[in-house]
Give the backbone structure.
Amino acid sequence: MAKNKEQKEAKKEGSYTAKDIYVLEGLDPVRKRPGMYIGTTDTAGLHHLIWEVVDNSIDEAMAGYAKNVRIDLLSGNKISVDDDGRGIPVETHKQTKKSALETVMVTLHAGGKFGGESYKVSGGLHGVGVSVVNALSEWLRVEVCRDGALWVQEYKRGKPQYKVKKVGKSSRTGTKVTFSPDPEIFAKIEWDLKRIVDHLRQQAFLTKGVKIEIVDQRTLPANYHGFYFDGGLLSFIKYVTKSEKPLQEEPFYAHKEYENIDVEAAFLFRDELETNELSFANNIYTPDGGMHLTGFRSALTRVLNDYANKEGYLKTKDDNLTGDDVREGLSAIVSVKLREPQFEGQTKARLGNPPARTAVESVTGEGLKDWLERHPQDARRIIEKCLLAAKARKAAKAAKDTVLRKGALEGLTLPGKLADCSSRDPAESELFIVEGDSAGGSAKQGRDRRIQAILPLKGKILNVEKARVDKMLLNKEIRALVVALGTAIAESFDLSGLRYYKLILMTDADVDGAHIRTLLLTLLYRYFQPLITNGHVYIAQPPLYKVQKGKEFKYAYSDSEKEKVVKEFAKGEKEKFPANIQRYKGLGEMNPAQLWETTMDPANRLLKQVMVEDVVEADKLFDVLMGQDVEPRKNFIQARALSVKNLDV
């Protein structure tokens, strides 16, 4: 009897009936699961609120109704976005029996972009729009100028405070949204002006003929930025390559509509090795490319091969240029605007519409044929660079085969200097790249041998920003790293072969250590980029100080933390002698136990994960800091000399 009663109680506790089904109404789902709608609730998610509102204004501009968009950063964490478009309709909506304005503001998936002829093309981060911004705002006010009147409604956490009301006359049209993000949703509300300016500059390039202004009114005088580009992607390509050495006198540019798809493309070849391609669909950045980028690449490879054959540069079919050959040193931007874009993944990283490929390939191919005929000198320089890339490709293949070919790897042991871990599960394994044999010795003795592998590097590796793959693979330290990782390299890279899911750069806390770390990051960014984009690369944070008083000691990882520890030791102490402060400059100064305790123990250590938020900015920075041209690097250092922190003297 007692057993049956227990079973009944258990069934009751684990019941799953109609009453266990919860229906979240209105904007409640957004507040319950904000990450589903804006990706994250960190800094990126916070700024996505701005992008959602701005996207509505940009959509009005792309539809031909708006010419001006203004963003004001206000005190009290408020921000406003104002445009001179048509204004959100305010009349009663047949389905909801409420004002169309209120319907748009409080209903998910309500707007003019789901059918009809209001918008031929539209963007928006996740297609959920301003209602999500309303849901995640502590307070929001929307003002609409339309039909000769000014209409207003306010909301608190998505709830209307009153019905849409007419408060005056207006001779203009447009929509102004002012909001304050909800501190219950966002732990830290701090607007990043640079992030806002960079994003909106990009939008101005992609929407030519539209003026975008950003005014930071939190300071006196107000900080003003304004953007207006008639050239579209032609202006954009000049901007992203302004500090580089172009091979062309004139960038390639094409803009044409093909079967109801608006195609815009621009490119410029530079005297560089790396490729920089940006692609957009309805003004949305597609970091993983998609059909539009595939169409561009196909046209570029086909037309350049046709031209090279016609001009006698290629002797046989075996000499034909590959896609990698024709993209070396290329900076290209492709933008399409189309109805019903199909994106792969919620974050819209890749465009999946097959017609976009046909449209871009047709417009780019036709435009490039004409451009090559009209610019014979530029055409010659481009073909010569492609031929040089093809020659280097063959040399690089021979070098990679020496290191990576199957037969060699079968008989090739892991690098002798590698102290491998015993685990064969990549998910729990870590590889520490350590500066110097001294620190390498301490790390090998202090590590957890089951999951932690150590690869010490001798001196500074080759700066790969200035070298091709064949020369790079002659470097013993780089070759050892390639074999240890198990992923191969460059276009042969295969993430599935990765032997360690955490790659940790552990260098000294001085200028030389920072330089070695930068050289390693350059190598990883240029030839192992998926390791970074998939979150496998980390930087170890060894302590800067050991503060000791008597037998008690603590480690400090910053100057402010050191001062705090010193004050803690001094508080309540009768002894007058000060605490002893040891400044660590090298990992080799720590014995194995100290290195484990401070820098390698997963329970105590500090790691910084290496991420790339802005590919264009990252690419430019590597060019400036690690490239061959000295002048841009000199200018960069001079411009930032006064803001240097942690200078090793």
The first helix runs from residue 2 to 13. The longest strand covers residues 137-146. Residues 5-24, 406-412 have pLDDT under 50 and may be disordered. DSSP finds 22 helices and 24 strands in the chain.
